[in-house]
User: What shape does this take?
Amino acid sequence: MIADDDPFIRKLIATTLADVAEYALHEAADGVEALVLAAQLEPAIVFLDIDMPRMDGIETCRSLRTLDATRDGTIVMLTAGAEREREAIAAGADLFLTKPFSPLELLRLVDELHSQLAAAGPGH
Amino acid sequence: MTDILDSDVRRLHDEIDALRRRLAEREEAMCAKERQLERYAADLRETYKRERERTIELRGSYMATVRALSNAVEARDAYTGKHAERVAAYGLALARETGSALAQDPQIEFGFLLHDIGKVAIPDAILFKPHQLSEDERRLMQRHPIIGWEILREVDFLGEAKHVVRSHHERWDGDGYPDGLAGPAIPYAARVFAVADALDALTTTRPYRQAHGWVEARRIIQEEAATQFDPAVVAALARIDDTELARIRAAIS
Assistant: This one.
């Protein structure tokens, strides 16, 4: 799931990741939508923009970690700079990508996560 | 008074119109840029997927080539059969049991498969001599690890595998050859190899004796822990079930 208030960034990430690994891609426009969708979809990986209206990435991350659907999933925060990375990790993010993010880093990250989950066995 | 206001208002209208036009143009230019960026993203994705596929193909090619080489070496000796492949399988099981990163490294499997490649330089008369070798003959035979090392020296993709080829006859107590390395100085893969190799040798029928059972083979290997073999690797062997060993042997024969 990709949560970012900028529709173009959402589109760019979705295009970059389209059928690279066996994941369905979904989009959310802000933190509130992200929580609703996450509960329905149980996404294996969530990308969160740190700056979103209504509920920012940090708060959304904390809330996602309280949901059964996303307690143990992978959360990647899209941060604007080094200062907020520790905050992101403290909020429960597993990884972060600094904007402007490297699309190659994004691709490798998704592939790596996919093979880790596959190695962990079925039911993941 | 109103004339002056009128012309001001008209000017403002004109400016607003001009700004609106500029804004529209900027938005269109922005859309064009976004569309172009989208194309970049899509192309990057496809390039990435292609590269990923090529890497998998390449690894497959390397493995097939190494297997072919390994089979070529073994083809001379009717009795070795799938020895190298079995040793590689036992070796990987041992590496996994010790939790070594070795288990994930294809280079190590390459080394196990190619360990005796140096034997291509040993004459038939010596290689197949049915009785005890003379001093000279033994010295020549014991060159095969170095010959193998020389043969593979320029093959970069083999990496650590070359150490298995060179050091697979070293002994934990330093009495091995060609370099007389002892203990942890022996490359880890070579220490794992030694145990895997002995295991297969003992549990295969040879011209001069029947195959031992798993229990007997383990006992014989245990006796050589800390002399010939790394005791930690021997301990790892003890943790692997007979059933798994039997499965490997059944799969590769």
Q: What stands out?
A: Chain B has two domains: 1-60, 76-251. DSSP finds eleven helices and no strands in chain B. Chain B has a mean pLDDT of 90. Residues 1-60 of chain B form one domain.
